[in-house]
Design a protein that fits this description.
Layout (H helix, E strand, L loop, with lengths): L1 H23 L1 H14 L6 H29 L7 E4 H18 L2 E7 L6 E4 L1 H17 L5 E9 L3 E8 L6 H6 L15 H11 L3 E7 L3 E9 L2
Parallel strand pairs: 2-4
Antiparallel strand pairs: 1-3, 4-5, 5-7, 6-7
Helix pairs in contact: 1-3, 2-3, 4-5, 5-7
This protein binds adenosine-5'-diphosphate and magnesium ion.
């Protein structure tokens, strides 16, 4: 009986996730298309050309990793653990999200409190998927523009990533609904982004927490064991 319920849940989740994937794969593909179109211009400097190629490749990589994540959910793979530098993973996310943020009139602030790399044990693609989902939520919370602050900090035996926005914020009630499957306040939301984020962070032995204040903004913090 119990197995059957789990099975049904997974099927439902799969159906919802396929909807999300087909929806979310549009973003990187659209951005790649935009950069390829820019490359057609004849008056480009070499630097700009190089930059547009990088952006286009990043978009393709993102589309690939979305599909990979989806397939991993459908059929869990061996849990590959590698040494990751959270600073590098965060920088990757920023490069990817910058064109999107500019469209939304959002300024991005990034700061690292340590010069050294901050290593954890995890899976790069999964961490990137988490960061992207969290940053996307932050941007979507600022429809009239704002500031996205990203920080990494080093603690004695842990490392921390903070993602802060100056967006719509949440009431205590909304805050406590975070991570419930299908909870969304967006017209085209899926309410699955954070479900996936929370389960991935947990798999990497991390801890995620949120604080928020209505009409002021939201802070998200992720703490990992340092490796
Ligand atoms: P979706 O983005 O598809 O709605 P998520 O699971 O990513 O699904 O988020 C669920 C809900 O949590 C959002 O609809 C929104 O109401 C709330 N939320 C998440 N992040 C933020 C944020 N940074 N600021 C305000 N609300 C947020
Ligand atoms: Mg989301």
């Amino acid at each position: 009986q119990r197995n059957r319920i789990t099975h049904l849940d997974k099927n439902r989740m799969l159906a919802e996730l396929s909807a999300t994937v087909s929806h979310e794969i549009r973003n990187p593909l659209t951005s790649t298309r935009g950069f390829l179109q820019l490359l057609l211009r004849s008056d480009l400097s070499n630097t700009d050309r190089r930059r547009y190629v990088d952006y286009a490749l990043t978009g393709v990589d993102q589309a690939i990793s979305l599909l990979t994540d989806f397939l991993n959910f459908a059929k869990p793979s061996l849990n590959l653990q590698e040494q990751l530098d959270i600073k590098e993973e965060l920088e990757h996310t920023i490069r990817f999200i910058t064109p999107y943020a500019i469209d939304f009139k959002i300024t991005i602030d990034i700061s690292h409190d340590s010069e050294a790399p901050l290593y954890i044990l995890g899976e790069s693609q999964k961490l990137r998927q988490c960061l992207l989902n969290l940053v996307k939520n932050a941007i979507e919370a600022m429809p009239n523009g704002g500031r996205l602050s990203l920080r990494t900090c080093k603690h004695p035996s842990a490392v921390q990533i903070s993602i802060e926005d100056t967006g719509v914020g949440m009431t205590d009630k909304q805050l406590s609904a975070l991570g419930k499957p299908y909870y969304t306040t967006k017209e085209h939301g899926t309410g699955l982004g954070l479900v996936v984020v929370i389960s991935l962070i947990k798999k990497m032995n991390g801890k995620i927490s949120f604080s928020s204040s209505l009409n002021r903004g939201t802070q998200c913090s992720i703490v990992f064991q340092q490796y």
